[in-house]
Amino acid sequence: MNPVVADERADDDRRLTALALAARDGAPADVAAFTEAVYADVRRFLAYLTDVQSADDLTQETFVRVLGSLPRFAGRSSARAWLLSIARRVVVDRFRAARARPVVADLADWQAAVERCQPRDLPGSQDAVELAELLAEVPHERRRAFVLTQVVGLRYAEAAELLGCPVGTVRSRVARARHQLSASWLAA
């Protein structure tokens, strides 16, 4: 980055942080000055993360959280970084809430639509029994790593922490377990 631009950005960050620290006490003029100084940046950031139509609502929600948290802002980081991290969390929370809500289908025969969308050719209970038998033949450490990552769905780093070993070891164990299972499955 150009040193002049970097200096300007640092000066702007210091100015915004000073405005946030002044607004902590809740004086209307200070809160308004801080809000006006950062509003456009927050809205632009939220439009970038989502879309222009959602940005207005998300900006409002962000400022509700910011104004509630402002008295606790200590200035350990720049106000811009603090503010944009709150905005990012607002977006994440919105996506999580949307994912948790059921989708309403405007279909006359919704039951038939659901039946058409059901997955086909899934392994049956007999396949599960065979897989369990094959998995029992995998050495204990490999089986634990495989089950944690491939069945339970943990990330490799999480599994490594649980197993008390490096991530590379987990990857190796999973790969070896996978190889052994596929060879055994084909041989069966």
From TrEMBL:
Pfam families from the UniProt entry: Sigma70_r2, Sigma70_r4_2
Similarity-based family: Belongs to the sigma-70 factor family. ECF subfamily.
InterPro entries: RNA_pol_sigma-70-like (IPR039425), RNA_pol_sigma-70_dom (IPR014284), RNA_pol_sigma70_ECF_CS (IPR000838), RNA_pol_sigma70_r2 (IPR007627), RNA_pol_sigma70_r4_t2 (IPR013249), RNA_pol_sigma_r2 (IPR013325), RNA_pol_sigma_r3/r4-like (IPR013324), WH-like_DNA-bd_sf (IPR036388)
Presence of keyword Transport: no
Domain RNA polymerase sigma-70 region: 38-99
Superkingdom, taxonomy of origin: Bacteria
The protein's name: RNA polymerase sigma factor
CDD domains (UniProt xref): Sigma70_r4
Annotated RNA polymerase sigma factor 70 region 4 type domain residues: 130-180
Species of origin: Nonomuraea bangladeshensis
Keyword Transcription regulation set for record: yes
Keyword set, alphabetical order: DNA-binding, Sigma factor, Transcription, Transcription regulation
